[in-house]
Amino acid sequence: MYERLVQKQRSYFYSGATRDISFRMKQLTLLKWALKKRETEIVEALRKDLNKSEEEAFLTELGPLYQEISHMKKHLPKWAKREKVKTALSHVGSKGHIHHEPHGVTLIIAPWNYPLQLAFAPLVGAIAGGNCAVLKPSELTPATSSVMSNLVKEYFTDEYIAVAEGAVEVSQALLAQRFDYIFFTGSVSVGKKVMEAASKNLTPHTLELGGKSPAIVNKDAKLDLAAKRIVWGKFINAGQTCVAPDYVFVHKEVEEAFYSHLKKHIKNLFDEKYEQLQYPKIVSERHFNRLLSFMNDGDVVVGGKSDNEKLTIYPTVLRNVKRDASIMNEEIFGPILPVLCFTEYDKVMERIREGANPLALYVFAENKEVQNQLIHGLPFGGGCINDTIMHLATPHLPFGGKGESGTGAYHGYESFATFTHKKSILTQSTLFDVPVRYKQDKKTMTIL
Ligand code: NAD
What we know:
Blueprint (H helix, E strand, L loop, with lengths): L1 H13 L6 H17 L1 H12 L3 H26 L3 E3 L9 E8 L2 E5 L7 H13 L2 E5 L5 H14 L5 E3 L4 H8 L5 E5 L2 H13 L4 E4 L5 E4 L5 H13 L11 E5 L3 H21 L9 H8 L6 E4 L3 E2 L4 E2 L2 E4 L16 E7 L2 H10 L5 E5 L3 H10 L4 E4 L20 E2 L5 H6 L1 E8 L8 H4 L2 H6 L1
This protein binds nicotinamide-adenine-dinucleotide.
The site of nicotinamide-adenine-dinucleotide (NAD) has 28 residues, from helix 7 and helix 8.
Family: Belongs to the aldehyde dehydrogenase family.
Pfam family, one: Aldedh
Protein name: Aldehyde dehydrogenase
């Protein structure tokens, strides 16, 4: 079944239809228009799947997508132009150009936590690059997957863009095909399987994975603001965000004060939402039970309550968490925040270096030396100084992990670069033939 789909897309790709820049621009406009037309349906689907509020749906799903499309449309004509490079003395008479070529037929596999954005943002890159695409959304958010599938069917032909709904078997069946590029967003364990599948045909790929992203709060940090930004970044979408601060290291001297700021901001930002049933739910019973099992890994400072029927967990902060507790050994991906205290930076750095490379890291400090020591002394994908999450919400910064937290990056120009191949072409003159290369004279070759 998918073999035919891929063949159909490959024939369409080789017809040349997707290469034209004005065609790509039109498709980007169409995608934005289609999203706008279906906004109500999308918001409703996100509410059904994750109990996202309308404002959160705009803030974290539709808004970033509109921004990504507009940014791409603004720059695509310039980015897609062939680039002229300099000519080396040894190549006199020739011209060198870099052509930004589409890969061909691409596969985009998406997770459930931002089900619309994480499927369509890579699609923006695929369209801009001049590719065809098969999207595989998550089975855990079926309402959003269905809206995406209907939208794509209504506005695009399946020889150009298709959505394959379904669970693991669908993903595996797709991965068994020969694609020209694979863009995967999801867990580390599945990322390894995707890489293995890609290796069969040496298919180039991007892996946007997860992991444990720490926030470090120095004693000179503006504590109230640090707590507010950590609370927002951690508990938005009920902590189900790949770059949410997974845990916090706070300097011992400010630990007690930090808890009271956390308490205040959780109350201000999330109390009413939770009470009015406007707070996102945990995606499945399995994840809900996994998260509840973490509650005993420390002492509850804030929160601790949950609702088995609605699958909601109130934003919770834990202290006195042991290093070997299970909450410290897997990605939390839910609204539970362990806080650990420290006195020496070297120990914090040693501990972070021992683990897998975080996807994100957040430093809260006024002291520039401390900021630099942490930012440059630790391996991680990207992050913020004195903020959380915001580095991924701009098309001007490439977003991606490092090693265990991912391979490659996207957003803005990086999406265009990801979904194109830099093809170097040298055009040689036929008016004359410089004899130097035929001589194989050591002296001349050294001069060149
Ligand atoms: P997941 O890896 O379980 O699933 C992701 C996709 O892979 C889904 O479409 C799923 O159907 C498919 N899949 C699952 N098992 C598969 C298998 N054995 N073979 C092939 N395909 C398979 O991830 P998830 O639970 O949907 O998402 C949560 C994870 O994603 C977290 O680890 C989170 O940190 C990460 N994430 C990363 C980013 C990022 O941009 N780096 C963004 C969001 C989520």
